[in-house]
Amino acid sequence: MKEILIITNYFPPETGAASNRIFHLAEGLQKHNFKVSVVTPLPNYPTGRVFETYKGCFKASSTENNINVHRLWIYASNSKNKLLRLIAMLSYSFSLIWFFVWNKIPKTVIVQSPPLLVAFTSVLLLNSKKRKLILNVSDLWPIAGLELGALKKNLAYGFLEKIERFNYKNADLVLGQSEEILIHVNSIFPEKDTFLYRNYPDFNPTEIFETNQSKNKLKMVYAGLLGIAQGVYKLCQELDYSNIQLHIYGAGAEKNNIETLILNNPELDIIYHGEISRKELHQELITYDIAIIPLLNRIYGSVPSKIFEYARLGLPMIYFGGGEGENIIQKFQLGWIAKAGDYKDLNTVISKINTSNINKIYKKEIQKTAIDNFNFNTQLKSLIGIIQ
After folding, report:
1. Which helix (H) or strand (E) holds 38?
2. CB-side exposure of 328: number of CA atoms within 13 Å?
3. Coil, strand, or helix at residue 160?
4. How far apart are CA 77 and CA 79, in angstroms?
5. Tens digit of pLDDT for each residue in 341-363?
6. CA torsion 320→274→177→283, rounded to 10°?
7. Would you give the distance in Å from CA 69 to the centre of its chain?
8. What average pLDDT score do residues 326-331 get?
9. Does the fold of domain 218-373 match that of domain 2-201+375-387?
């Protein structure tokens, strides 16, 4: 049985796309006769506080779904203060160094990036001709940070670019969750081996049934991180509620602002449901007419995993983020697109949706498209063929 180690910043019981993606990868490899170990911080995302179960722990090891999980100490923080965020990343990097010193590391290692500093620590210390290092890139940093306004082009940015290049250069294989990521990597290192590894979900398709029989208003849902990048707070302010009712699930930095907005503006047809488990969320999502996937700014290299998850649920989408995600929606006819950042266009697109067309037949078509084209196991088998 071949051993493989996955180094990541996110893992269940943490919620969100990153956690789900790595869990499914680990579980999938385990089911294909790999002996899988995962190294991750003590759970703290998205609250920035170590979960109650793990408070007071320096480390915790367990076997979960036949996967060996090692949770290491981290100075947890989701503060907007850049220094505190840096300290949090460095603390996990130091814990990784301690782990590498005292544990035997397999010959195949998958390293999640970003965070760049954590990936750099892993690549720097584990780089060996006898070891295969696989860099799993889900977002392009520091470019994404620049587009989000979190970073500026200065000496610090140049330093992060050097780290990024070091990571790509010393990885034996780079996995990218979008074509744009692979294009970027190969523009720097043309000969680098790359593999498109999308964030496909792995769950049994749900039964499709009719929704919104009255068709008085379009029942639209947003589910996910309420962070700066998603811009859900601004979305709530800019939407025209004449023909829609917006339902929100999730948690994050904008949660309090959204709750205050709803409290102070009862005329806005918004219902906030809080955060629920992924299994519960799936049961809720299939009761809605349509989902919205917003990004405050178009982020090069980003393709929200919600596209593939919603498609498997048979849920039509409005995509409001530009880039490669927009192309996927159009190519596979998964819903509608609005110009990134143009709320007037978004409201126009929504107003033109014929609710009578959002029926069981249309939803089944979307689900079939997902089953045929966004298959987790087919993709995983292709990846295994490369890394074995």
Report:
1. strand 34-41
2. 30
3. helix
4. 5
5. 899 999 999 999 988 888 888 99
6. -100
7. 20
8. 94
9. yes
Rounded to 10 degrees, the C-alpha dihedral 164/165/170/173 comes to: 80
**Cα 200 from Cα 181, distance rounded (Å):** 16
> Whose CA is closest to 328, among 311, 346, 349, 347?
311
Cα Dmax for the chain = 64
CA 357 – CA 97 distance, rounded (Å): 56
AA letter at 188: I
Residue 344 CA, chain-centre distance (Å), reads 27
Q: How is residue 355 written in tokens?
A: 């609710």
Closest CA to 289 of 206, 238, 239, 214: 214
6 burial (CB, 10 Å; 0-12 / 13-18 / 19+) is buried
Residue found under tokens 């029942």: 219
Q: Which CATH homologous superfamily contains domain 2-201+375-387?
A: Glycogen Phosphorylase B; (3.40.50.2000)
Within 72-170, residue ranges assigned H as helices are: 82-102, 116-126, 143-148, 155-170
* Closest by Cα among 135, 201, 182 to 163: 135
CB 69 within 8 A of CB 61: yes
Query: How far is the C-alpha of 137 from the C-alpha of 73, rounded, in Å?
Result: 23
The sheet that has 67-72: what strands, in order across it?
Answer: 59-64, 67-72, 34-41, 2-7, 108-113, 132-137, 173-176, 194-196
- Give me the helices (H) in 265-342, please: 278-285, 306-313, 323-331
Hey, where are the domains in the chain? 2-201+375-387, 218-373
Q: Which residues contact 161 (CB under 8 A, 6 or more apart)?
A: 142
Asked if CATH classification 3.10.20.740 holds for the domain at 218-373, the reply, yes or no, is: no
Q: What are 29-79's pLDDT values in tens digits?
A: 999 999 999 999 988 887 778 888 888 888 888 998 899 999 999 887 776
Where does the pLDDT of residue 206 fall: very low under 50, low under 70, confident under 90, or very high at 90 and above? confident
